[in-house]
Amino acid sequence: MSYKIKSRIWIESKNNVFLGEGRVHLLKAIQETGSLSKASKSLNISYKKAWHLLDSVNKSAKKPVTINSIGGKGGGGAEITEYGISLISAFDEINKSCWVFLDEQLKKIERI
Amino acid sequence: MSYKIKSRIWIESKNNVFLGEGRVHLLKAIQETGSLSKASKSLNISYKKAWHLLDSVNKSAKKPVTINSIGGKGGGGAEITEYGISLISAFDEINKSCWVFLDEQLKKIERI
DNA sequence: ATTCGTTATATTTGTAAAGATATAACGGTA
DNA sequence: TACCGTTATATCTTTACAAATATAACGAAT
Fold first, then answer.
1. CB A27 within 8 A of CB A84
2. Is the pLDDT of residue B1 over 60?
3. Residue among B13, B97, B98 whose CB faces A1 most closely
4. Could you tell me the pTM of the whole model?
5. Which one of A67, B39, B54, B86 is at 20 to 30 Å from B47 when CA atoms are compared?
6. How distant is the Cα of B60 from the closest Cα of chain A, in angstroms?
7. How far is the CA of B49 from the C1' of D26 (A)?
8. Which residues from chain A sit within 8 angstroms of residue B6, using beta carbons?
9. Of A81, A55, A12, which Cα lies nearest the Cα of B1?
10. How many whole angstroms separate alpha carbon A5 and alpha carbon A79?
11. What residues of B are in contact with residue A11 (Cβ under 8 Å)?
12. Per-residue buried b or exposed e for A71-103, using 16+ beta carbons within 10 Å of the residue's own CB
């Protein structure tokens, strides 16, 4: 039976979590559904939790990651900015390359 | 204000956690104190939690990581094996190299 | 035989995170 | 104006996990 190495990475800004796997999942779901409430349903998390996650992302970000609108056609919605799209793909890249890196490093354990 | 990238790595065996930062901290404390109860006190965690952590390590490991003795001189104690010492240093190496790797990767976010 | 400080384990208690619920505000549309 | 589905927010409830507590078993030393 061989070992598996797992990881969890996140980015902090001023001691607050800015981006992590959960937040990136949420951003992707917003991108697909066009609204925070639909995104929360698709991820099976409460709206409240989703809202807090998104709020923390936008508060830590240097530029807006989503544009949220209240009222109007369809009641409103949330839209990912270009900046947000870039963040998602950069985070995914880092995460995937980290997995590759760690799989290689795991050999240090396996050869003991 | 710049970003910090953080990580948490762990090694699983058969869907159980084998080694992680908490478990490695515990092993180091056992190495220093010679007993599980003293180690748990030095880490400010309950004996119960420490015992479960150590138990999971030894159950997942291919060879014993500690030798635990009940009763006898001083009431007993726990001792790290040579194999355990090797695991600790290998894990630390992987963890540190992961930090270096991720700090470099963070530039992908910062230059957006 | 008694004492000692452990390991080992079960049971109870406390607490912080998650979830559920409720409601206000909003701004297009009809 | 009334309606709609959304964002935004507060408050209450639940629940999972951590912590505290209690106790048995152990074996060397005295």
1. yes
2. no
3. B13
4. 0.91
5. B86
6. 10
7. 21
8. 9-12
9. A12
10. 35
11. 3-6, 106, 109
12. eeeeeebbebeeebebbbebbeebbeebeebbe
d(CA A74, CA A18): 29
pLDDT tens digits along B27-79 = 999 999 999 999 999 999 999 999 999 999 999 999 999 999 998 888 899 99
| C-beta of residue B87 within 8 angstroms of C-beta of residue A3 | no
Residues B57 and A48: their CA atoms lie apart, in Å, by: 37
| Count of CB atoms situated within 10 Å of the CB of B77 | 19
Q: Answer whether any strand D atom is within 7 A of the Cβ of A112.
A: no
Contact A60, A14 (CB under 8 A): yes
Chain A residues with CB-CB distance to B3 below 8 A: 11-13, 18
User: Are residues B83 and A11, on separate chains, in Cβ contact within 8 Å?
Assistant: no
Q: pLDDT per residue over A14-48, tens digit each?
A: 888 999 999 999 999 999 999 999 999 999 999 99
pLDDT in tens, A66-98: 999 999 888 999 999 999 999 999 999 999 999
The answer on pLDDT for B99 being more than 80 is yes
The SS3 of residue B80 is strand
C1' (D14) to CA (B99) span, angstroms: 39
> What is the rounded distance in angstroms from the CA atom of residue A82 to the CA atom of residue B112?
11
**Whole-number Å distance between alpha carbons of A38 and A32:** 9
Q: Is A86 on the interface with B (CB under 8 A)?
A: yes
